[in-house]
Amino acid sequence: MTRLLGIALLLLLSSEGSQCNALSLKPNNDNKVNNHQSSFLSRRHAMAVLIGTVTTVVTLIQPPTAADAACIAGDTSVDCIGTYRDPIPRQKLDSRGRPISEDIHLKQYTLHPNRDDVFLSTPNSLEEAIGILTDQRLAMDSMEEFVSSGELEQAGVILLGALPKLTVAGRFVVFAVPAATRIQPFFQAAEEQMSQLEHTVAMGVRGKKGILAVAQLAILKDLSQAKVALDDFIKLAKMGQTLKIA
């Protein structure tokens, strides 16, 4: 961060120096008082830009923290659609490095104390994980029906419930299938598409996509792409299951 701020300062000082040099090359038709005022205003402008630059740089390099979270994962309240949520903790491992099948407890704390905590079930086998993924894939078909009928909030609620289950089950699949399947990029692609889908749904719910028909078309497009990505991941997970059994 220090290096970035130093570079910004040097650039601004160089810019100020260039401005001053340009002033000195002009015919000296103004008196010394006007020249002094121009130089003073130039320095004030440079300082204002520097302060703005420092603020922007500091804001950009600071990642979201727990204090920035608006909801916890698995909270299916409408106001949680499109909000930042803390990453879901990874499944605990036993002494042999195998995932332990136990619920992941996500607490509301002070975010929404009037709402229930969320308990995410973790898969105990590759077969169970694939089953969870398949169930959420079916839920996306229900999403499509709600979007088509203009019920965007209900579609968003279904997505909020599906996302954490996809994450937990997907992590288990990546851990469990043979490395030869190279499944990790497919999991990342599915998560990215689902994240984009949620963003588009949130824009539609908040009316930032214009009229309803425009929002529906945008959501259905992203939903279709998310389905393809998830289908590819599930297909590869089943292939990995076959290889593991063999």
Describe the protein's architecture and organization.
This protein has 246 residues and is mostly helical. The protein folds into two domains: 2-62; 76-245, Four Helix Bundle (Hemerythrin (Met), subunit A) (Up-down Bundle). The protein has six helices and two strands, in the order ααββαααα. The chain has a two-stranded antiparallel sheet with strand order 1-2. The protein is globular, with a radius of gyration of 27 Å. The two termini are 52 Å apart.
In short:
With 246 residues, the protein is mostly helical. It has helices at residues 2-25, 32-61, 126-148, 152-176, 184-205, 212-245, and strands at residues 104-106, 118-120.
Radius of gyration: 27 Å
Strand order of the largest sheet: 1-2
Question: How do the helices and strands follow one another from N- to C-terminus?
Answer: HHEEHHHH
Sheet-strand content, in percent, reads: under 5%
Quick one: CATH class of the largest domain?
A: Mainly Alpha
In this structure, how is the largest beta sheet organized?
2 strands, antiparallel
